[in-house]
Design goal:
alpha/beta; Rossmann fold; five-stranded parallel sheet; 15 helices; 47% helix; 8% strand
Length: 339
């Protein structure tokens, strides 16, 4: 059995990964390979229970230079015109590192690449999760950039180029501010994934995050049916321990919030157009931000850079002076040396 979890970052993919790890280990102990974000993190370093590898994400030696290289060389959107593209790195992701029978793979950089993954492994069970843009953008702005500036040259220019060639999207990149960059990524990556699923015989299980949180047992049962494993009541407790409606405190300005609101309507349109089962309650989402929006961003809020807290952890680990440590430059230099 091979299972692939897909979705834009901060949409609930890690919660699904954690749940499925426990389900698979319960049913196939010692017979499962785990692959976590292979376009960024080293497969061997992360082939373990998620709670055992979380600390590794603060260390440079957990980064996969090969994964980053292949990400930057593959198109962000793979359509019928280039779905036969060959990529040995991606193909090898589906081959077990040992004679194990099962694989769980999680990717947040694969929404535009479903056709490639499905062609390489047509027997895979795909699970896709989508979450409203306000919560996603609020959460991601506190953690990382969708365009990978933390670890390699930004994907933003090629993202715009591919939008122009596929969707006739034209816009001066200088006019696209940070929040607009994020929500464009959220919209087009989700839209393209859902469009790709429509053309496939191998239909993924598509989950609305907000409904998933409100109806945990129902969705755990649905996931178990999709992968062909018997449901057990205590699987629901795993979700209760690791999923909540608010992953992070509100971190949006009033201006950013207003820019995102039209995309909330687009989210509702996507759910309707692609018949994604949901009981989405807009008021539940919006009430979280009522009277909590910022007038301006905090001075230490960074975009496209490793966060200050992460820089401190890197510096502490390597026992060097914080002011002299530049993890981003070090990674980019390593990237240039290798490729």
């Amino acid at each position: 059995m091979k299972i692939v979890i897909m979705g834009v970052g901060r949409s609930g993919t890690t919660a699904l990964y954690y749940l499925l790890q426990h389900i698979l280990l319960r049913n196939f102990p010692n017979d499962v390979d785990f692959v976590y974000e292979p376009f960024l993190w080293d497969r061997n370093a992360c082939n373990d229970d998620y709670k055992n590898i979380r600390y590794k994400f603060r260390y440079i030696d957990s980064v996969s230079i090969e994964g980053i290289y292949n990400h930057t060389k593959l198109p962000l959107f793979i359509g019928p015109e280039n779905e036969n593209i060959e990529n040995e790195y991606v193909k090898n992701l589906f081959a077990p590192t040992t004679p194990k029978n099962h694989l769980l793979l999680k990717m947040i950089r694969a929404n535009g690449r479903f056709r490639l993954l499905n062609r390489i492994c047509p027997t895979c069970k795909f699970i896709f999760i989508i979450r409203n843009p306000i919560d996603v953008i609020n959460s991601v702005s506190q953690r990382f950039s969708f365009y990978g500036e933390d670890f390699h040259p930004s994907d933003f220019n090629r993202f715009l180029w591919e939008l122009e060639s596929k969707f006739n999207f034209t816009k001066d990149k200088k006019e696209i501010k940070r929040i607009k960059r994020d929500v464009l990524y959220w919209y087009y990556m989700n839209y393209y994934a859902l469009e790709s699923f429509e053309e496939s015989i191998n239909k993924p299980l598509v989950i609305c995050f907000e409904d998933f949180v409100d109806s945990k047992k129902q969705y755990v049962e649905l996931i178990c049916r999709h992968i062909g494993i018997s449901f057990e009541d205590d699987y629901v407790n795993i979700i209760k321990e690791n999923v909540s409606q608010s992953y992070s405190v509100p971190n949006l300005t009033k201006h950013e919030y207003n820019l995102l609101m039209p995309y909330f309507s687009k989210y509702e349109e996507l759910l309707s157009k692609y018949q994604i089962y949901n009981h989405l309650d807009r008021s539940k989402i919006l009430i979280k931000y009522k009277n909590k929006l910022l007038d301006t961003k905090p001075a230490d809020n960074s975009f496209g850079m490793t966060t200050i807290s992460l820089r401190k952890r890197y510096a502490s680990h390597l026992r060097i002076k914080k002011k002299k440590f530049r993890p981003i430059k070090r990674i980019k230099k390593f990237y240039k040396i290798c490729f």
